[in-house]
Specification:
Number of strands: 6
Order of helices and strands: EHEEEHHHEEHH
Radius of gyration: 16 Å
Shape: globular
Helix content: 25-40%
Strand content: 5-15%
Number of helices: 6
Largest sheet: 4 strands, parallel
């Protein structure tokens, strides 16, 4: 795949592997900040491989009933201790993986500190993931909303947990591979914890 000039993506919580594949194959990256929040998407959800199979974990947001909210204005809810639950899920899923100890300290801050806005939270996570991959990526943000773009690869809605991805994952070793067949396109942390520095070459 030749590098595309510009790609636009939605924000995402510990995004799936294909998200990083498209970033790695683009020269300009734009994150959409002016769309309306969309529920049941990767904007506040990620998928990991746990002992009982694929597990979706979601960041709860403060609902603004009967009113649409821009993604940049979407606030995180702390009515439940979801950070502790997410941390326990990730720890249980990957503490036996080859590179768990190598990366886990980079991520612990996201489950101990409270962040007000989902977009800010996701961007801090994304920047940390770039560091883990040894990538130098400059992210730009949309200044206003456009339903369609010319000469831009638009993945804002195609990267979605309920849609079949066009991205074809190459297999790599996964924890619990003795129990389950390879599960493609999980969160990037699945690739990092299992493959470590090889993740950069995988992508």
């Amino acid at each position: 795949m030749n590098k595309a000039n510009t790609t636009i993506l939605s924000t995402a919580y510990f995004p799936p592997i294909e998200y990083f594949y498209y970033i790695n194959n683009s020269t300009n990256i734009i994150i959409e900040t002016n769309e309306n929040y969309t529920k049941q998407s990767f904007r506040n959800r990620c998928s990991i491989l746990a002992a009982n199979g694929k597990l979706d974990i979601s960041v709860p947001i403060i609902k603004n009933h009967n009113k649409k909210t821009l993604i940049k204005d979407t606030k995180i809810s702390y009515d439940t201790n979801w950070q502790k639950m997410h941390w326990k899920s990730i720890e249980s899923a990957y503490n036996s993986s080859a590179f768990y100890e190598y990366y886990i300290d980079d991520f612990v801050k996201f489950f101990t500190k409270k962040y007000n806005f989902l977009l800010d939270y996701n961007i801090y996570i994304l920047e940390t993931l770039f560091e883990a991959l040894n990538w130098e990526v400059e992210i730009k943000f949309s200044e206003d909303y456009h339903k369609t773009y010319d000469r831009v690869l638009d993945y804002r809605h195609s990267i979605h947990p309920k849609l079949c991805s066009e991205y074809k994952s190459k297999q790599y070793f996964q924890v619990f591979s003795d129990k389950y067949k390879f599960i493609p396109n999980l969160s990037i942390i699945d690739l990092l914890f299992n493959e470590g520095t090889n993740a950069e070459y995988y992508l």
